[in-house]
Structures are given as structure tokens and as C-alpha cells.
Amino acid sequence: MKMHLKKAVVVLFLTGSVAAANADVCNTVPGSITCGNGTVKSLTGNGMVTVNGTTVSGTTLVNGLLNAKGANFYSLEVNGNAKLTQCTINHSAHIKGSLTASSTKFDRKLELNSGQATLINSKVRSDLHLAHTDSKKQIVYLDDFSEVSGNIIFDDGEGEVILRGQSKIGGKVIGGRTVLR
């Protein structure tokens, strides 16, 4: 019994240390999280999540709205809408909602469950995959020197890629068509 108590105290101490470390970077109130400059191991938020200059070295899961500026994510999963400005996603990114990305890099595959995505001066270094949605048409806007190095894949076969401002696709558009404007 004495040994179990020691283990419990150690676990509580370590949990408190992690929470205290994140508390220096992130402020949590019911319904929102705001993170500033610094590094956190992981980030999970429900509601409004605002990230400015934060590095997340592990997973990020947002159920709600993500507004990130100057952030570096290892992996990113958003169940809701995401607005990313000057961010880097080093591993996988999966967004189930609309995406607006400005001056943002996706170093691996970007997967969306969305009717619309806008990339402005942003790069996807692999495939951009738009999974099934209930939208009649899925639209991807590539603006101002945006680039998708791989394929753009629309599962529903009704996709449209709008290329503007010298944006380009390194692969093919599968399940959709390209419109130059």
C-alpha cells in the first residue's frame, strides 16, 4: 500500500509540473485556450483556440475553431474551422471544416473534410486530399504563389481547383478540374 501511495504522489507531482509548464505558455478558461510564445508538449482544446508564436512538439487536437499565427505544429487535427497564418505543420494535418491558410507550410499530406479551402502563398509538400462531404461541390482556392507538390484528390468527383496568382500543382487533379483565373 505504501508503494502505491508513493507512485500516486510521483504521478501527481509530474502531472502538476506539466500543467505548470503549459500554464506559462497557455491560458485556459472554459470554452477557450490562448497560447503565446513558447513550447508545449501537446495541445487539446474545445471551443476557441488561439495560438500565437507557439511550438507544439506533439499532437494538437482542436474541437472548435483554431486561429493560429506564427505557430509550429508537429501534427494537427481540427474538428471545426481553421485559420492558419505563417504556420508550419511538420507531420500530418487533418481538418474537418473549412481551412484558410496564409503563408503556411504543410510538410506532409493535408487531408480535408470540407466544401472549401483557401491557400494563400502556402505550400503543401505532398498530396492534398479532400475526403467525402455532403457538399455538392468542393472548391480549393490556390492564391498568390501557393503550391501543392503532389496530387489534389477529390473523393466525391465534383472538385474544382481555382488557380490564381501564379499558383501551381506539381501532380494531377483527380476527381475534379482546374480553373485558371
Which terms summarize this structure?
mainly beta; 181 residues; 22-stranded mixed sheet; disordered N terminus; 1 helix
Outline the secondary-structure elements.
Blueprint lengths: L1 H24 E4 L2 E4 L2 E3 L2 E10 L1 E16 L2 E8 L2 E4 L2 E2 L3 E3 L3 E4 L2 E2 L3 E3 L3 E5 L2 E2 L3 E3 L7 E6 L3 E2 L3 E3 L4 E5 L4 E2 L3 E2 L1 E5 L1
Parallel strand pairs: 2-4, 3-5, 4-5, 5-6, 5-7, 6-8, 6-9, 7-10, 8-11, 9-12, 10-13, 11-14, 12-15, 13-16, 14-17, 15-18, 16-19, 17-20, 18-21, 19-22
Antiparallel strand pairs: 1-2
Question: How is this structure best described in words?
Answer:
This protein is mainly beta and 181 residues long. The chain has one helix at 2-25; strands at residues 26-29, 32-35, 38-40, 43-52, 54-69, 72-79, 82-85, 88-89, 93-95, 99-102, 105-106, 110-112, 116-120, 123-124, 128-130, 138-143, 147-148, 152-154, 159-163, 168-169, 173-174, 176-180. The longest helix has 24 residues, at 2-25.
